[in-house]
Write a structure and sequence with these properties.
The protein is an alpha/beta fold. The chain contains twelve helices and twelve strands. 32% of the residues are buried.
Length: 419
């Protein structure tokens, strides 16, 4: 008799999943029946090989593993299971509950043990204890994810604020100096123009040709240098918009103005990889924190462009569109691209409470889960879709700002709290 699958086709069962691995069908049924009263979805396997197949299908909350299986020792399976799924709780079912055997079970990753012959009441009690341990572990990891996200954002904010402050003054000085040099060169150029004929009469042709080329180069390069310095100065000021610290501050915001700032910040990543099209619909002001929204928009742009498999701007397009929903209660910001379609793993990442911890500890940018967490803290949401013809759609949903809303410092929910 084959064991039941852990995944029912077309249905997502949200109850904790328990796997019973036992070659004796009577004991296997007894363990399953005793555990089912704890609100778990049970799967069963008679061999280690079948158990390993089921482990790949679904994340387990708990497993009851016999210490003696037909094709391998139960301790080998316990070790393999804990390696594949470190958060899973494993109870080793021991034929010989001696101190040495219990020590072997624990050494291989078992969190608890049961002795044969099994007692249904004891099984139910131990299963419930194991489920409680798993729940507490998951909650601790969720709190760690939230703290890592908040600490990472505070760190990014501190760095951005310090960098913007350090860049602002020297860039302003460079810009003003280039303006003065340009004005001085303009006056000098006019004087040279007035006396050019006399210079030609007194200077050889080669020298005049070189002088003409040098003046033309200066005339060409000065505006380029000034535009570059001015752009850096504007980017320095835009950088302050992502230097947020502390609690979000809710205020009416023009999402199109914030998108323009986000595009400027993400421009180095976009350049040469995609053609950006803006389709602004002039929606009403949204309610949000401008600093956090710029960070979210900029990171979604970067995530989108990095999904493009063939980074030639001629072949790729990224569209940023704004609108208001039919109820006029929500402002919609939609970012679509012609890159690779989002994988099921990426789509589920937004709801993964542990993804933010991985993002905060391993990357320098926000990922989808962190962007989603920031938006939820502002009363908004992040929706993802894979487009039928290829590419992805990122939709940011924000509440419309109530008329007469006056922002107050500390408004909004802390990022470490529940959405």
């Amino acid at each position: 008799m084959s064991s039941p699958p852990l995944v029912t086709p077309g249905r997502r069962d949200e109850s904790p999943v328990l796997l019973v691995v036992e070659d004796d069908p009577n004991v296997r049924e007894l363990l399953s029946n005793a555990a089912s009263g704890c609100g778990v979805t049970c799967g069963m396997a008679a061999t280690g090989r079948r158990a390993r197949e089921l482990i790949k299908q679904r994340e387990l909350a708990l497993a009851l593993v016999s210490d003696s299986l037909p094709d391998e020792t139960g301790f080998e399976l316990v070790h393999a299971l804990r390696t594949a799924q470190p958060r899973a709780q494993v109870l080793s079912v021991l034929s010989d509950p001696s101190a040495a055997r219990i020590a072997d079970a624990l050494r291989n990753g078992a969190s608890d043990w049961l002795a044969r012959p099994v007692d249904p009441v004891t099984v139910a009690h131990r299963v419930q204890l194991a489920l409680d341990r798993r729940r507490l572990l998951d909650e601790a990891l969720r709190m760690r994810a939230r703290l890592l996200t908040a600490e990472g954002m505070a760190s990014v904010g501190s760095i951005a604020a310090a960098l913007a402050q350090e860049l602002d003054a020297p860039l302003r000085e460079v810009t003003e100096a280039l303006e003065r040099v340009g004005e001085g060169f303009g006056a000098l150029f006019e004087r040279l123009r007035a006396s050019w004929q006399r210079l030609e009469e007194r200077t050889d042709e080669a020298t005049m040709g070189e002088l003409s080329r040098q003046l033309a180069a200066i005339d060409e390069l000065l505006p380029i240098a000034w535009r570059g310095a001015s752009r850096l100065l504007h980017l320095s000021r835009d950088l302050r918009l992502v230097s947020f610290r502390g609690r979000p501050v809710l205020a009416p915001v023009d999402v199109e103005e914030l998108l323009d700032v986000a595009v400027a910040l993400a421009e180095p990543e976009l350049r040469g990889r995609t053609q950006l099209a803006k389709r602004y619909g002039g929606p009403p002001d949204a309610l949000g924190d401008p600093e956090r929204l710029v960070q979210v928009f900029a990171n979604l742009l970067v995530i989108s462009v990095k999904s493009i498999e063939k980074p030639e701007a001629v072949a790729n397009q990224t569209v940023v569109a704004t609108s208001v929903d039919v109820s006029r209660r929500f402002v919609l910001v939609e970012l679509s691209d012609s890159g690779a379609r989002l994988s099921p793993q990426a789509l589920s990442q937004v709801l993964d409470p542990f993804a933010a911890a991985r993002e905060a500890s391993t990357t320098g940018t926000l990922g989808l889960s962190s962007c989603s967490a920031l938006l939820r803290a502002l009363g908004g949401a992040l929706e993802l879709e894979s487009l039928p013809g290829g590419g992805s759609l990122f939709r940011v949903v924000l509440p419309v700002a109530p008329s007469g809303f006056k922002p107050r410092s500390g408004e909004g929910r802390p990022l470490t709290g529940e959405p």
